[in-house]
Amino acid sequence: MTNTRMVKAVVLIGGPQKGTRFRPLSMDILKPLFPVAGFPMIYHHIDAARKIKGLREILLIGSYQQSDALHRFIMEVQHEFRILIRYLQEYAPLGTGGALYHFRDQILAGNPEVFFVMNCDVCCDFPLAEMLEFHKSRGPGVHHTILGTNATRQQSLNYGCIVEDSETHRVRHYVEKPETFVSTTINCGVYIFSPDIFNCIAKQLENSKEAINFDLTSTEQNPNIVKLDDAIAKMTTEKDSNGIIHVYHTIKFWSQIKSAGAAVFANRHYLSIYHRTHPERLAKLGPNQPNIIGDVFIHATARVDPTATLGPNVTIGSGVTIGAGVRVRETLILDGAIVGDHACILYTIIGPRATIGQWTRIEGTANDPNPNKPFAKLDVCGAFSNDGRLQPSITVIGSSVFVPSEVVILNSIVLPNKELRGSFKNQIIL
Ligand code: GTP
Question: Which part of the chain is the Nucleotidyl transferase domain (predicted)?
Answer without folding.
Answer: 8-211
